[in-house]
Design goal:
Length: 96
């Protein structure tokens, strides 16, 4: 018989992640540690700035970050441009 009371009976408590999600998060964290942890992220930022920026966009809050963290947008833009220049140089070296 269907529950017509509007109240939830049985099942997981609200906010409890399912087992598959929990297992996947654990596997990703383990792979991250095996890849070098924060050193891996630094290499990713240096070698693949576009991929790193996409990763950041997925994990940072969607609110205006600069309001809460006092990020210097000009400095961040310069660093991104420097990273792009390094990647371009690496691509030129690979072609030779």
């Amino acid at each position: 018989m269907a529950n017509t009371t509007g109240k939830k009976f049985g099942g997981r408590k609200k906010g409890t992640p399912n087992k598959t999600t929990q297992d996947m998060k654990s596997a990703i964290l383990e792979a991250f540690e095996n890849a070098g942890g924060t050193a891996y992220l630094q290499r990713l930022a240096d070698d693949e700035p576009r991929t790193f920026a996409m990763l950041l966009s997925r994990i940072l809050p969607s609110e205006n970050i600069n309001e809460n963290r006092n990020i210097n947008v000009n400095e961040m833009t310069e660093r991104l441009q420097e990273g792009r220049a390094r990647v371009a140089q690496l691509r030129l070296v690979e072609k030779d």
